[in-house]
Amino acid sequence: MHLLIIGGSDAGISAALRAKECKTATRVTVLVADSFPNFSICGLPFLLSGEVPDWRTLAHRTIEEIEREGIHLRLKHRATYIDPVNKTVTATNDSKQTHLIEYDKLIIATGAASVQPPIEGLGLPGAFALRWMRDAFAMEQYITEHRPKSAAILGSGYISMEMADALTRRGLSVSVLARSGSVLKTVDAEMGEMIRSNLHKHGVRVIDHVAVTSITQEGEKLVLKNHTEALLAVDLVLIATGARPETDVAQTAGVSMGIHGAIQVSLAMETNISDIYAAGDCVETRHRLIKGPTYMPLGTTAHKQGRVAGENAVGGRTEFGGSLGTQVVKIFDLVVARTGLRDHEAMGEGFEPLTVQSESWDHKAYYPGATKVRIRITGDRKSHRLLGAQMVGSYGAEVSKRIDVFATALFNGMKVEDLSHLDLSYTPPLGCPWDPVQIAAQAWAKNQDVSKS
Ligand SMILES: Cc1cc2nc3c(=O)[nH]c(=O)nc-3n(C[C@H](O)[C@H](O)[C@H](O)COP(=O)(O)OP(=O)(O)OC[C@H]3O[C@@H](n4cnc5c(N)ncnc54)[C@H](O)[C@@H]3O)c2cc1C
Fold first, then answer.
1. CA neighbours within 13 Å on the CB side: how many for 94?
2. Which of 9, 30, 128 to mutate to test the pocket of ligand 1 (most atoms within 8 A of CB)?
3. From the CB of 353, is ligand 1 less than 6 Å away?
4. 22 catalytic per annotation
5. Maximum CA pair distance of the chain?
6. Of 9, 44, 4, 39, the residue nearest 297 (C-alpha)
7. Nearest CA owner, ligand 1 atom 3
8. By the 8 A CB rule, do 332 and 198 touch?
9. Whole-angstrom Cα distance, residue 328 to residue 165?
10. Nearest CA to ligand 1 atom 29
11. For the chain, how big is the Rg over CA atoms in Å?
12. Which residue out of 246, 255, 305, 336 has the highest number of ligand 1 atoms within 8 Å of its CB and is therefore the one to mutate?
């Protein structure tokens, strides 16, 4: 049995490892377009900031470690065509040689690509996207050779935030151009304002409601314009306006596409074509709460979906549990996290949401270093079911693990009040007898009672 996998990042390698684990005798081949299989692209901002000094350490596993598992890697092989009738994939290598590879089962794990907004001049030297190792190498080389002093980041999502931090650490003066007028739109405006003040505190300028239509090289500078009006002149530009599913090769097989142009899959990660599975950033994902498809390109999801696809491709019968959109980002000394639905999203899904904000110490205030954690809980007024949570706190306040308590509760359909009964850990340097998660749940329940009376 030959399992062929297109794509060698989070989803593709997870699939390969799981397939080998479940059926050791399976012949597994992974086609990888570049020469960086299983690299943590999530770590690129920290490589560029200088916090991670050596790019090689970004590898989740080395090539040798992957091959030791009996997985055959074909690096610098780009799949260009899938023939599902004859069960073959055409791939072209770096020297433009074409190979026809037969498969019994195929997994498409081609990931995503950076969105290229319709802006003239994106190809100019000094203008970058950040998705691949090669993007990071190119930006690093530019920074080393040209010593830029200023940067503009287009977009205000989590990659923009991480890169604002990274480039500031490298000594650049950074401006974030937020077209929508809010930073990190994935959390409520109340939290967005805290992020904005934190950016200002660290010298990052946020410019709202700007639409860049072109970038031009004028002398040493890259000038960002809205039509003829010059908005800003900088030395480096980063386009961080989102990701789109990479489905070119999937389309050649006639695979059905769904939301945002991502590949439609079942919970078993099967496509509509027999013996072809797909996983990761190239597919739509099922939202566990809304029970419908959504597009959430995240490394956490890609790993899980890859594992499901790998197991099923070799005869297993497992299903992906669904996404809740649990995310966390560190911006300088601040950590911002969310899971589940926000108020307006819950309303859109037919719930009757109530969102309540609370603030409490991350650990006992008498023990040095205590900081406040702000939490917003969204629950359903009728059923009291937890629908979502957002959190902001300082680095070291365990924000990411506390959002994971909410994610676990959401996954299991718990009511907000149930959080108070959880037996969570406590010692004064690390927590409080009532954890901030529980204080937030109690604040929600209290508000719910008030709003009823
Ligand atoms: C800067 C940055 C920071 C991020 N930070 C986080 C984070 O903190 N947390 C988080 O959860 N997620 C984060 N993400 C998202 C996360 O990296 C992705 O969700 C994850 O990498 C998706 O994995 P994937 O395997 O589906 O696809 P990808 O990582 O996109 O990999 C696709 C693979 O397919 C290969 N490929 C594509 N087309 C072909 C072809 N035709 N033939 C052969 N090979 C092909 C590529 O070479 C690559 O190996 C971040 C992303 C970026 C860019």
1. 7
2. 9
3. no
4. no
5. 74
6. 9
7. 42
8. yes
9. 15
10. 9
11. 23
12. 246
| Residue whose CA is at the smallest distance from ligand 1 atom 51 | 42
pLDDT in tens, the chain (453 residues): 999 999 999 999 999 999 999 999 999 999 999 999 999 999 999 999 999 999 999 999 999 999 999 999 999 999 999 999 999 999 999 999 999 999 999 999 999 999 999 999 999 999 999 999 999 999 999 999 999 999 999 999 999 999 999 999 999 999 999 988 889 999 999 999 999 999 999 999 999 998 999 999 999 999 999 998 999 999 999 999 999 999 999 999 999 999 999 999 999 999 999 999 999 999 999 999 999 999 999 999 999 999 999 999 999 999 999 999 999 999 999 999 999 999 999 999 999 999 999 999 999 999 999 999 999 999 999 999 999 999 999 999 999 999 999 999 999 999 999 999 999 999 999 999 999 999 999 999 999 877 666
Number of other residues whose CB lies within 10 A of the CB of residue 135: 17
CA of 450 to the centre of ligand 1 (A): 46
**Residue in the structure block whose two tokens are 């939490």:** 375
Regarding the beta carbon of 281 and ligand 1, being less than 6 Å apart is answered yes
Distances 113 to 110, 131, 243 between C-alpha atoms, Å? 9, 7, 5
CA of residue 116 to ligand 1 center, whole Å? 16
Question: What separation in angstroms does the CA of 165 have from each of 136, 333, 364?
Answer: 15, 10, 29
Kindly state if the Cβ of 285 falls inside 6 Å of ligand 1: no
Q: What is the pTM of this model?
A: 0.96
Q: Ligand 1 pocket, 2 CB below 6 A?
A: no
d(CA 362, CA 347): 30
Q: State how far the Cα of 128 lies from the Cα of 147, in Å rounded to an integer.
A: 15
Q: Which residue reads 């959390």 in tokens?
A: 187
Q: Which residues pair with 224 in a beta bridge?
A: 215, 232
